[in-house]
Amino acid sequence: MAERQGQAAPDAVLTRIGQVVMLHHAGDREEARHRFLGLWAEIGEHGDPLHRCTLAHYLADTQDDPEDELAWDLRALTAAEEVAGDRLAAYEGSLAVRALYPSLHLNLAADYARLDRPDAARTHLHRARDAARTLADDRYGEGVRAAIRRLAVRLGDDGTPGRWGPPRQRP
Questions:
Q1: Is residue 145 pLDDT above 90, yes or no?
Q2: What is the structure's pLDDT at 142?
C-alpha cells in the first residue's frame, strides 16, 4: 500500500540495524556488537552497499580496539563510495549515503587521532568539513558540525595550538 502512494516500503535490513543501534545507545555495547556482526554475516562483503555502509558505520562504534574501529570505518567509507560511483543519481540510497559522508569522515578523523596519526586525521577532518556543507540546518546537521568543531580544536586545526601544534598550511 505504501508503494502505491509513492512512498518506498521500509527497508527491513535498515530497520534491523536501527534496532541494534537503539540497543547500543541503551548501553549494551557487547550485545550490539554481537548482533551487528550477525547482520554483517547475513549481508556479506558483497551485499547492498547502503546496508554495508550503514552497518559498518555503526559497528565501528562498538569496537574496543582503535585499529578495529578504523577498519570498520574504512569499510563504511568504501561501501559509501560504491554507492557514490556511477549510479549515485539512480540509487535510492544515494541521498542517505550523501548525508553520512560528513560523519564517515569525522569518524575516520577521530580514529586516526586516537592512533596518533595527525596528518591522516586532519585530511579526514577537512573532508568532513567539506561534506558537512551539504547538511541541513537540523538536529543531525548541527550535531555533526559541532562534533567537527570539537575535533578541530583537539587537532589544533581551528587556528589554535592543539596536541600536535599549529595546523598545516593548506595550498
A1: yes
A2: 96
